Structures are given as C-alpha cells and as structure tokens.
Amino acid sequence: MTAQILLASDPSAVAAAAALLRQGGLVAFATETVYGLGADAFRAAAVARIFEAKARPSFDPLIVHLASPAWLARVVRDVPAGAARLAELFWPGPLTLVLPRQPEVPDLVTAGLDTVGVRVPDHPAALDLLTAFGGPVAAPSANPFGYVSPTTAAHVVEQLGDRVDAVLDGGPCRVGVESTIVSFASGVPTLLRPGGVTQSQVEEALGAPVRVAPRTGVEAAKAPEAPGQLEKHYATRTPLRLLSSREPLVPPRGAGRVGLITFASPAPSGFDAVEVLAPDGRSATAAANLFAALRRLDTRGLDLLLAEPCPEEGLGSAIMDRLRRCAAGAA
C-alpha cells in the first residue's frame, strides 16, 4: 500500500503523523533542504526501519532533528562555544552540528560513534511535526540510499512507496540541497559537508578558518562521521559526467541520447534534453532546482548526462559537491 499523503497545513494531519512516529512508524516530512525520512530517534527498532526502507548501510550515521535548541541536552553531552555560536546564528536553518552524544542515543543512529549530528530545521511542516511528536526525530533524506534526494512529496512516494507510512506534504523544498555539516568532534571545527550555509558564513561566525574534511580519496572512504560523505552518492541511474570549465557544451559523438544540466539561459542546442538550473543567474535558484532537474533527466530514457560546472563560491560549493558525487555514483 502506497504511503498516505498528509497535508502539513492541516493540524489534524500533523497530529496523525506524530501519532505514527509514537507507534514506531516512518514519516517522511518536508524541511527547507530536502524531504527527510523520520523515526523516533530513541526507538532503535523504528530507526532500523529507516535503514531497511532506504537500503542504507548501518555504518552511515543519521541526523537527529530538534524542534528547538533547547532540546540539545536530550541528545548531546556538551556544546562548545563555537557550536553554540553557530546554533544561535543559523538555527532554525540548513546547518548540522556534530557533537558528543548522550549515551541514551541508540548506536544505530550514530553508527556506533560517540558523536551525533543534530539540527533544527527551518520549515513549518518539520517544526510542527517535531513539536507535536514531542521528541527528537532521526531523519536522513527520504530516498533509496545513494540516489538523488527528494524535494517534493511526490518524489518520496515515487521512490519509497509502501516502505513509508505517511508523507507530510509541505510543498517543494526551498533550499534544495542538504544541510551543511560542521563537526566539533576533534575540538577543531571541521566542515564535513557543504550545504545551505556556506563555508564563508561559518568562518565569519567563528572568526577563524575551518578545517575542510577530504571529499574524495582514501581518507573520505573511511567510515563517515556524518551523512553524505561517501564518494558515490546522490546518483542518477543515467550515467552523469561533470564537464571541466574548458570543455564545450556539445554532445559527444556516438554517445546516443544526451542530456545537459546547465546554469544559465540560453541553453545550447544539439541535446536531447536540457535543464537550466538558474535562469536568473542565482546560485540559490540553481541549488533549489538541482535534484528535481536530475530526476527529470533521469526519466527521459537518455544514455548520458553532462553537467556544466559552476563557480565554487557560496552555494556553488554545495552544488559541485553533489554533482561530483553523482558523477562518481551513476550506474
């Protein structure tokens, strides 16, 4: 049976979704970044259903969502001054902090690590659900593991179907790429994943540069400290190749049907399908459109996808991170 769709604008629907979480159910819900697949963070059997539904490896930790920074003490033991400063500035918002966990947090949530990723989402559907439920909710993106993240309720139903009990539909996600992840596990603030809060914003808030964790190679292949660190991730089924800034936007000879992801209009000709991410030239628009554009191209029966690179400034860093991992993971 396909998951029921509940409208986040309906208080009775939010109450029903919260009741499902209390019963150990799985509820997908809108956030400002992407749709999350939520379960009671303190109920290991419910959390196990997340891994089963997504076919997610158990060594990949989950992010715990909170309704308020006041809930931090429920899941973390210590909040360093730098982490408190980031929470003050960017919560609610697309920022995850990796902090020492409370022993009550199940090992399955943290992949056995002594840290846990936490954030306060900036979306009324998520906040209403968390408040109605009354406790922390563990929630990775609501998609099969490694595939493109969902930015609408329809994306969730299309991919997970009867593996989810309900989807709380809060409309399209505003940011469109996952949260930035900053770890304080080593005592040195470390950027584990670029996202909706830029590296420069984090550094300005902390008054100092942050360490950037390796995104590819041997170090990145070790057990991840947070979601989205695996080299192969966010993949389409259609092979995707990320072009260099020097390559022309033309279909390769003999490649069959080719699609293109480009950033600005007018789009070049000669492709079988084209997605323009940012007709207005803004990186925020490109980020919001990225995953939906990848999904549309992936349904067109193409043989190859080409992606134009963008400047790695601000949100451009998060966009390029997702495209690199998509290119590494496309089957």
Describe the structure.
This protein has ten helices and 15 strands. The chain is of the alpha/beta class. The chain has helices at 11-22, 44-54, 72-75, 81-90, 107-110, 124-133, 153-160, 199-206, 283-298, 315-329, and strands at residues 4-7, 27-29, 36-40, 63-65, 95-100, 115-119, 137-138, 166-169, 180-183, 190-193, 211-212, 240-242, 258-262, 273-276, 304-307. Strand 2 (27-29) and strand 3 (36-40) form a beta hairpin. The longest helix is centred in the last third of the chain and has 16 residues, at 283-298. It is globular, with a radius of gyration of 19 Å. The protein folds into two domains: 4-212, DHBP synthase (Alpha-Beta Complex), CATH 3.90.870; 240-329, Rossmann fold (3-Layer(aba) Sandwich), CATH 3.40.50. Strands 1-8-2-3-7-4-6-5-9-10-11 form an eleven-stranded mixed β-sheet, sandwiched between helices. A four-stranded parallel β-sheet has the order 12-15-13-14. Helices cover 30% and strands 18% of the residues.
